DNA sequence: CCTCTCGGAGCCTAAAGTCG
DNA sequence: GACTTTAGGCTCCGAGAGGG
């Protein structure tokens, strides 16, 4: 179904009820060169999938890799962890385990909108496409009424107050910590003069983690560039990945990927998470931050408090609101009644009392 | 269970404001 | 004039109600 393409990514597989013991190859003993005591075991590795860009083609199952890694170096305070591999038929979940519900999952893909929904889809608040008749109108047998509406012209001459200057690291003036701002809490005296490093977007199905600070590289792997090529050092050998295994004592491990502890992951002590955006003067949601969970919507009720009657069903059993030529699509978030796409009065969401 | 409604989050982009 | 920020206008996701 085409409307599924914009839906949330599929849920991660359910976490196994029982957490079996980790096999020895998933212990921190893999990394003897780590500073003694700095990152004591256990920490675990995850063998990359064959389609993983870090997968070693010369090793059928790839080299063991720490589950926490930075590729390329992420913004301070963040590392990327591999997404869980798919379950192995007959063997269940491989290591590590999938993240639990509530783990900050990969950002959902941006919703894509068509330039102009047809009048039917607009009225029904349903997904449209660029073809005419659109897929939905064809499906409902109303292809003959599948036409574009007309957009209202934007208002002009509306005066605004002075603009707030945004940080380069977010949509708000509270900047995300930069590489030059010490995660250890040192205050930078020049918060805005250092050119901001640019970071690639977090790969899909990766998970954000915090790391304490760089400096504990794990065994070498190539450091692929965004184009997928590896960077070699002066000797022609691949540069190691900047891995940052977490110190379980300081930064409690995330259960599914590390020591089976109960601690949900949080920002390191010296590295505060990106601050919540200040309330927008207009109350408008900031697209760059995770929105709060939607509030439970309340059913629209009539003057007497009784639920408004549904529109009568069409005889063909298909939807009746918004599919006809009088259906309109217009803003309904600002509370202003405006003309619909056909110039008719806004009948959207108006329920017939008949 | 399925269909339909519709609140409101999210997206696009033009207008207003700022900067060099 | 180019760039940035804001917000108007719109799309459409997805929870919830109600019907079959």
Number of strands: 5
Basic shape = elongated
Query: Helical content, roughly?
Result: under 10%
Work out the radius of gyration. Answer: 26 Å
Instruction: Give the N-to-C terminal Cα separation.
Output: 34 Å
**What percentage of amino acids are in beta strands?**
under 5%
Describe the model.
The chain has 354 residues and is mostly loops. The protein folds into two domains: 23-115 and 209-280, no CATH class; 117-150 and 301-354, no CATH class. The protein is built from two helices and five strands. It has helices spanning 119-124, 135-139; strands at residues 68-69, 79-81, 207-209, 223-224, 230-231. The strands form two sheets. A three-stranded antiparallel sheet has the order 1-2-3, with no helix packed on it. The protein has a two-stranded antiparallel sheet with strand order 4-5. The longest helix has 6 residues, at 119-124. It binds a DNA duplex (20 and 20 nucleotides) through residues 3, 6-8, 110-117, 121-122, 124-128, 151-166, 282, 284-285, 287, 291, 294-300, 307-308, 310-311, 313, 317-322, 329-334, 336, 338, 341, 348-349, 351.
């Amino acid at each position: 179904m085409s409307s599924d393409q914009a839906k949330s990514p599929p849920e991660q597989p359910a976490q196994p009820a029982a957490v079996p013991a980790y096999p020895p190859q998933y212990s921190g003993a893999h990394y003897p060169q780590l500073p003694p005591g700095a990152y004591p075991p256990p920490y675990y590795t995850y063998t990359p999938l064959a389609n993983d860009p870090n997968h070693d083609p010369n090793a059928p199952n790839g080299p063991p890799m720490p589950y926490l890694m930075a590729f390329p170096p992420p913004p301070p305070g963040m590392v990327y962890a591999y997404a869980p591999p798919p379950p192995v038929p007959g063997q269940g979940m491989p290591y590590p385990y999938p993240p639990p519900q509530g783990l900050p999952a990969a950002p959902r893909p941006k919703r894509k909108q068509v330039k102009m929904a047809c009048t039917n889809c607009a009225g029904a608040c349903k997904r449209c496409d660029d073809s005419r008749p659109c897929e939905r109108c064809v499906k409902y047998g109303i292809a003959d009424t599948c036409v574009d509406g007309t957009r209202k012209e934007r208002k002009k001459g509306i005066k605004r107050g002075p603009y707030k200057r945004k940080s380069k690291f977010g949509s708000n003036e509270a900047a995300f910590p930069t590489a030059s701002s010490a995660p250890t809490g040192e205050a930078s005296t020049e918060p805005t003069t250092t050119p901001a490093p640019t970071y690639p977007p977090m790969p899909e199905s990766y998970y954000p983690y915090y790391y304490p600070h760089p400096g504990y590289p794990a065994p070498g792997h190539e450091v692929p560039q965004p184009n997928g090529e590896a960077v070699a050092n002066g000797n022609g050998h691949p540069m190691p990945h900047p891995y940052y295994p977490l110190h379980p004592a300081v930064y409690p491990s995330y259960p599914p990927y590390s020591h089976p502890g109960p601690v949900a992951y949080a920002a390191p002590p010296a590295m505060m998470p990106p601050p919540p955006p200040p309330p927008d003067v207009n109350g408008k949601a900031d697209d760059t931050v995770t929105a709060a969970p939607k509030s439970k919507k309340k059913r629209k009720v009539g003057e007497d408090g009784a639920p408004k009657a549904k529109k009568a069903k069409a005889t063909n059993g298909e939807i009746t609101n918004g599919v006809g030529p009088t259906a309109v699509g217009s803003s309904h978030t600002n509370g202003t009644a405006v003309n619909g796409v056909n110039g008719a009065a806004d009948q959207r969401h108006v329920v017939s009392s008949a």
